[in-house]
Design a protein that fits this description.
Transposase; flat; mainly alpha; 73 residues
């Protein structure tokens, strides 16, 4: 669900901790909280995917997630 709503590290950073937690709550995911959101945010900040090839990477990831979702249903 995070990848669907925030497919790039830049978008994870833009969401921030509260936004990440809101996604989890919206999807009723348990056993996640501030510490896990902080860890995800820190990983996004140090990722190499914060500036280059974002549009093509985001489109490719979107297609892969859609394909994966159709196979598990």
């Amino acid at each position: 669900m995070i990848l669907n709503e925030c497919p790039t590290p830049k978008k994870v950073i833009e969401k921030g901790i509260e936004g990440i937690i809101a996604i989890w709550k919206k999807h009723k995911i348990r056993a996640v909280g501030i510490k896990r959101a902080e860890k995800l945010l820190e990983s996004a900040k140090t990722s190499i995917g914060t500036s280059e090839g974002l549009v093509s990477a985001e489109n490719e990831l979107s297609m892969l997630l859609e394909d994966y979702g159709s196979k598990i249903r």
